[in-house]
Known about the structure:
Residues 1-21 are annotated as: Disordered. By secondary structure, the chain is an alpha+beta fold. 21% of the residues lie in helices and 15% in strands.
Amino acid sequence: MARHQPAPATPVATPSAPPRVESKARQRIGKAYELLAGQPVSLAGLSHETRGEVVVSAVCDDTGHIVVLSRVRDTVWELWPFINTPNIWDNNKRINWSGIPEAYREACQNMLYAYWKQGREGWSRRGWPRSKSS
């Protein structure tokens, strides 16, 4: 029984592939330092409306537009721009305030926001602490 021999492949002219372009999702997104620096250093004493409008996190996209990720009024604060450790799960890069009773939430937010913006007296300033999901 004779085996069927495949025909030799003839090279086909293909156009050269376009140069690989890094996807926009992978391009580095920068923090919106000017916007963040212009926010108040404390939430204490602000009216409810003004307090809710304070920006917690924001970034600049690849075209230079500012994208606000979280405001104080949001139930979840997105903190991923401040956490540079690559092996942290996404749910550890945000604070979900829904687990804090409404009666204590404002005080907890005021304390954490002031600690983040000012630090402790006599101590070096820290970044956002690593949050734990519950």
